[in-house]
Amino acid sequence: MKKIWLVIQREYLTRVRKKTFWVATLLVPIMLVALYVVPIYLSMNSLERTNIIVVDETSLFGKFRTDDEVKYHHKTDIDEAKFLLTQNDDYSAIVYIPKTETRIPSDAYLYYYSNSPNVIVKTNIETQLQRILKNNILLEVHQISKEDYEMINNATMHLHTKDLETGRADFLEIKTALGLVLALLIYFVIFMFGSQVMRGVIEEKNNRIIEVMVSSLRPFQLMMGKIVGIAAVGLTQFALWIVLSVGAITVVNVTNADMFAQISQAQNIKNIVTTDTQVAKEASQTVVDQLPEIIQGLLAIDFKVILTIFFFFFVLGYLLYASLFAAVGAITENEADSQQFILPLTIPLIISIVLSPMIINSPNGVLAQWLSIIPFTSPVAMMLRVPFGLPIWQVWLSMALLLISFVVCTWLAAKIYRTGILMYGKKITYKELWKWLKY
Fold it and tell me: What angle, 0 to 180 degrees and rounded to 10, lies between the N-to-C axes of helices 335-354 and 378-385?
């Protein structure tokens, strides 16, 4: 154990002291802050209003509402509108609503001459078309009273989910988001840290440092020390990313409080302008009404149990795959050659991610149960299922199989590692690996 600890210290300190480690550690928070600030800054400085010509041959749509982003100009003739669009640079596009045989048109056309309107403008136009069309159908065509119109327009139905045993609200969206976050975290950690283990083995093998190291300790001790040491490096970097990103974003929010206040105010005004005022009020009230249920949904989740299970599958899942990645690094001399062995190892993880929508839609289905029990897919599949609740025997069975698989795979990987770590200049095949396993 003392020798393994020395290898862990060496792996950790060697990588933490590298400039590349600190460059990557600082670069990720900077990129996150840039992704957070740049779009806001651009939106604050993009004050140019888009001018749109509206040609409505149906006479159903009346006046479009002009806001800070889009100004509408109504014309009666499409040819005149096309002439203005091609000859006057102030206009960006034409919204053309042709007259059809039916009373209510189903299509409209957006013509542009040189530059296509952006997505915000297109969404603004579609929202106004739907709003005006709905108003005209209800009020003018069907001649519904103003009171009935407001009742239909503002009517909302919210489905409340409650646990019959505990009586608490069961907010499914929170469970879905929690499961996805935990599953994706395990998925990326396994790939990121496992590939670092493989690259470390390949690097030391090519530098012939490994020949000196195996003279004083066993290959298994070297492999386990490298796996745990690199995991510690990765966890350190991951923790620094979180701390630095949160700190940097907090500093940006505090130092630019006025800018964010203006954005919030502008967004509120935009919502009121582009939608019915009464609808906006009802939507806001719905959000307020849902807050207690969201809190109940969070309280209904047993985070202690979920995080305990997550920690187990996080650690064992990484150790299982890291040992296999170390074996691959021992039998190859560069990353290009390792791809033929990496792909079969990672297919189970990829399958579990691809099938994640099916697991979430049916967390107690046969497919979800098998994927959460099979050791090579259980780290991801189990995290997708745990927030929804599942029989305790399935959790214990999955844990036991994962632990047994880790011990067996580590033992097999050590046999491959022991033979392949000192082998140079030879392309290893699956047939050759089978011979090594029988030694």
Answer: 30
One DSSP character per residue, 296-363 reads HHHHHS-HHHHHHHHHHHHHHHHHHHHHHHHHHHHH-SSHHHHHHHHHHHHHHHHHHHHTHHHHHH-T
Same domain, 303 and 414: yes
User: Using CA atoms, how far apart are residues 237 and 243, in angstroms rounded to an integer?
Assistant: 10
Number of domains within the chain: 2
CB 114 within 8 A of CB 97: no
Amino acid at 414: A
Show Cβ contacts of residue 216 under 8 Å, excluding neighbours closer than 6 positions: 3
Amino acid found at 434: W
Segment 208-213 long-range contacts (CB within 8 Å, at least 24 positions apart): 210/421, 210/422, 211/422
Placement of tokens 């499914």 in the chain: 172
Share of the chain above pLDDT 90, in %: 7
How is residue 86 written in tokens? 């091609």
Asked if residue 183 has pLDDT above 80, the reply is yes
Same domain, 137 and 181: no
79 and 205: one domain? no
| Angstrom distance (rounded) from CA 403 to CA 414 | 16
pLDDT in tens, 22-75: 888 888 788 877 876 776 666 555 546 678 888 888 776 767 777 767 888 888
Side-chain half-sphere exposure of 166, counting CA atoms within 13 A: 12
Distance (Å, rounded) from C-alpha 392 to C-alpha 401?
Answer: 14
Domain span holding position 86: 46-154
Which of residues 156 and 368 earns the better pLDDT score? Answer: 368
On whether residue 111 sits in a domain, the answer given is yes
Reading the block at residue 76, the tokens are 């009666």
Task: Identify the CA nearest to 171 among candidates 66, 291, 68, 67.
Answer: 291
Tell me the pLDDT tens digit for each residue of 342-390. 888 889 989 999 998 898 888 888 898 999 999 999 999 999 988 888 8
pLDDT at 403: 92
